[in-house]
Structure to design on (399 residues):
């Protein structure tokens, strides 16, 4: 919607500046006039005295002229005999001037008024470019926000300068980037969920059609595995949606012993647990079910791709707790070590038969971020992959 001319911000700011200058002029002129009258009233009185040839005073009057527009100043003198005389002091004519008497130079009051008018004009002319430049940048911001709101999620605002407008543009760009990433994540989640859900459902449908009284235990086990895979996928999709919603209630934050959680999960999958340093320092503040899910997903992912034993290592230092899960599998190529945490991403060559639904590591990253930590994938010390999670250490047990 186009803004009416008189409602444009730059015009309103400029008119406000000009109006303030005009008001200042009137106020200063009024104060100047009051001060001049007060000074004139306090000025000590002087008199005009008329004497005759003998020095005798024949008349006197206050030295305050009677000013009549268009005429020279006059003085009213009262004589001793009661007669009143008017003494006029005409301005001198210029040489050769035989015409009517011209008005003299402007008075001090007029000079002062002209000075204020020139100052007002200078302020008005000087402030316009500044005000216009500022509001032009705001118009660019307004136009960019409107384009972004109309669906151009990739549009960003120029971040020129270091003032408040530039800070506003930077803040908007950061927020727009997060919203765009979130929407793209949700689109990818919905697009891939349909495919991932379709695969186990198709296998179940085919298994049911082929099932009869002589159905082997292997077929029944395959159907049960597909149903379990479908349940796991639905559960992880729901959990991922809750973690994406920043205001969602994810549970009660409380001090947790990572050694106990890690020991239980390692025993469940047969992984080796290595605790370095003081076990009492390996305490973090978090949600128990989410941290348990984090450890379980890392161990199951490592166990799925391991060519040997899986090891979970715990240590503490610099105010953080390090949880590292490493295996002896083929590892993750360096170009994919960031993408491995994207929902439904699988390494080239991997298939659905390898197990997993492609959400385990994405959930790990979401859980770590909700707990104020970081996660990364590196090369394992003995080959394979190593997933390192760093979580803030519980202040009560910090080193």
């Amino acid at each position: 919607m186009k803004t009416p001319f008189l409602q444009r911000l730059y015009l309103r700011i400029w008119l406000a500046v000009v109006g303030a200058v005009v008001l200042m002029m009137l106020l200063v002129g009024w104060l100047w006039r009051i001060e001049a009258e007060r000074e004139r009233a306090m000025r000590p009185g002087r008199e005009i005295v008329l004497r005759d040839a003998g020095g005798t005073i024949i008349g006197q009057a206050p030295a305050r002229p009677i000013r009549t527009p268009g005429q020279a100043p006059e003085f009213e003198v009262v004589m001793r005999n009661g007669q009143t005389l008017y003494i006029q002091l005409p301005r001198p004519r210029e040489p050769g001037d035989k015409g009517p008497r011209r008005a003299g130079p402007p008075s001090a009051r007029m000079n002062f008024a002209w000075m204020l008018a020139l100052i007002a004009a200078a302020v008005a002319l000087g402030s316009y470019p500044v005000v216009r430049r500022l509001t032009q940048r705001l118009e660019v911001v307004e136009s960019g926000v409107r384009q972004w709101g109309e669906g151009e999620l990739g549009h960003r605002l120029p971040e020129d300068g270091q003032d408040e407008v530039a800070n506003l543009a930077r803040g908007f760009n950061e927020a727009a980037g997060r919203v765009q990433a979130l929407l793209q994540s949700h689109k990818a989640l919905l697009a891939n969920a349909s495919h991932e859900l379709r695969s186990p459902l198709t296998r179940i449908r085919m298994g049911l059609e082929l099932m009869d009284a002589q159905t082997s235990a292997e077929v029944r086990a395959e159907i049960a595995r597909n149903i379990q895979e479908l349940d796991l996928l639905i559960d992880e999709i729901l959990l991922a949606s809750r973690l994406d919603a920043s205001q969602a209630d994810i549970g009660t934050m409380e001090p947790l012993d990572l050694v106990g959680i890690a020991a239980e999960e390692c025993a469940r999958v047969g992984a080796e647990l290595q605790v370095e340093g003081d076990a009492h320092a390996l305490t973090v503040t978090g949600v128990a079910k989410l941290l348990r899910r984090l450890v379980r997903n890392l161990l199951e992912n490592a166990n799925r791709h391991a060519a040997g034993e899986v090891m979970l290592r715990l240590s503490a230092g610099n105010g953080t707790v390090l949880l590292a899960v490493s295996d002896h599998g083929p590892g993750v190529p360096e170009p994919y070590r960031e993408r491995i945490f994207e929902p439904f991403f699988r390494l080239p060559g991997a298939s659905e038969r390898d197990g997993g639904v492609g959400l385990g590591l994405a959930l790990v990253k979401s859980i770590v971020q909700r707990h104020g930590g970081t996660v990364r994938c590196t090369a394992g010390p003995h080959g394979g992959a190593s997933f390192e999670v760093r979580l803030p250490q519980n202040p009560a047990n910090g080193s």
Observations:
- The chain has seven helices and eleven strands.
- The radius of gyration is 45 Å.
